[in-house]
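Figure-free illustration: sequence to structure, shown twice.
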Amino acid sequence: MTLHMIGLGLSDMKDISVRSLETVKKCSFVFLESYTSLLQCSVSDLEKFYGKSIIIAPRDMVEQQSDTILEHAADQDVAFLVVGDPMCATTHVDLAMRAKEKGIAVSVIHNASIVSAIGVIGLEVYKFGKITSIPFHHENVKTPLEVLSMNDKNKLHTLFLLDLDPISKKFLSIKDAAAYLIASGAPADSLAIGCARIGSSDQVIRAGSLKDISSFDYGNAPYCLVIPSSLHFMEEDALKQWRD
């Protein structure tokens, strides 16, 4: 009948909207995308709060074996849960397109994502340029620095999303990301903001030089890193709250 693509927000099971929760409760199958980010709660917490059993959907299921999900949506309501907003990842757009090609109706219920929530650090969201990721295996990877250079040239801030594998409990640290950027040519004294668990009650935000912020303990993932371009005086004032 319908594939419902539902954003869960950034914190825990209570970030889901009322409309989303009502939709989940009526679905016959509930899948949870497990590779682009993670919540600060367990799957069992979600199941208890939603009153539904949840099927974990790893990357290969979503990208290569989507029929596993779509075959159920042909004649039943199916929920596809995504941490953050469901349409902030290209693979999710692709899943929606494949569903429509099969004649399956698609509904989307949005929620907060890191793309909007990063504004909490005090930088203007409208002044962010292209977002880029830093992968675990970054030897000879040049794209993050190329994006940083392009954004800075256009006086735009750069948001780096750090690689993660929630299933294996592997997360690229801010320390490793900063080391990679410095080794790749970013000045060690560049202003940077390290962030952990944005949107949660225990979020951590630290501003300082790229070298200095890497030594701070950020606690649990997910992590991201921001290198600003030219700052408005209000942005400069806002960043002071995250310094020592």
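We now fold a second protein in the same way, so the two outputs can be compared directly.
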Amino acid sequence: MIERIVPLHIGSVDISYTNSALLMTIAVALITLLLVAGTRRRAMVPSRLQSIAEMSYEFIAAMVDENIGHEGIEFFPLVFSIFMFVLFGNMLGLIPYSFTFTSHIIVTFALAVFVFLVATLVAFARHGIHFFSFFFPPGAPVFMAPILVPIEIVSYLSRPVSLSIRLFANMMAGHTMMAVFAGFTITLGLFGFFPIAINVALFALEVIVTALQAYVFTILTCLYLRDAVHLH
């Protein structure tokens, strides 16, 4: 549950600093610490922190190059920031008594809308009014336009919805299952070993899911930017 830590109001608008905002701040601080500490020495034989920082950089750089192309290098800072923010948000949520801000639809929807708006603005900036040709598949019969164009428009506008729900639902579902089996551990008493074993397995699965969902969110961001750059 979202709880207020520092109550703040501007008129009737509640802008309180919450536990969700606190975990976002911690995520940004940890990412900054990792990258600053990992790249400070730039040793020929990298330390563990440097290796993690370099691997993260190379992983996202390769993703951007493969999915957007060489023109996509200008979007690398955006894509890298989104990946690290979502990944750390997911991982922090696995710590007991922590808070998973990526399990709240308002957070994931805000991220998804931001990606959607950036991609749309890039498309307009690069192609102008020709961007609208994106909604009519090349080679399709002209008489099919009244059917295809509305379908393509609805599909395009649904991108932030599907992108946000995918991340939110996976984080919420995994944490809910862990909470349910944790409750069984207490109620079953001496027989609580079995729910504990299941929870350990679920925790290991959640570690994989947190990384996978950060990857999926990022790869879809790259695909949306590729459509904006190349209109296909």
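Summary for the second example: The longest helix spans residues 193-230.
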